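Components:
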Amino acid sequence: MKGTNMKKTVIALPLAAIVLSACVTINIYFPAAAAEKAADKIIEEVWQTQQAGKPVEEQK
Amino acid sequence: MMKNIVRTWLAALMLAVTLNAWAVDLEVNTPGINAIKQSMQARHAQLAPHYASGAVGLTADGLVAMRDAGAVSLAQRQAVIALVAAENRDRGALYAEIANANGHPEWLAEIRGTFAQRWIQRAQPGWWVQSGGNWTRK
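Structure:
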């Protein structure tokens, strides 16, 4: 019985650690790619550069 | 037993990856952000000719600035200065709103930096943009 509980702990602890670290990851790091995507969307709307569903990507 | 542990670990790993994937979109659809966007969109029609003439340029810190006052007639100059000031107020508010809407006011500088890069990258040919402290024409 004691052995089973130990094994459960062995499984549960790392599991909890991973889930927790995933949550911390969400909260700490700046999502650079998401920010770029969001910026592009807003810039397209402000500058009205969107053309029929095709964003003007490489306008030089 | 070993198999079970490995399976559990794999499941946990997948869960972690999924949780991370959820975080990949920034919230930019709030009433505050939309209002600022509309205001900037309306102003853009007035600003665009000044970007083209070089009177106003895009700065490296995500704002706009009077670059060449000589490109604007004396009569128009005050109006352009006011346009630039209003645009910068909106841009500052936009970056702060995005940071706040995502529950991370401390992201403000990074959001501003991201926008600065994207405004400049997407600027039309002929517009003036700031890079490394100097103005260059796209």
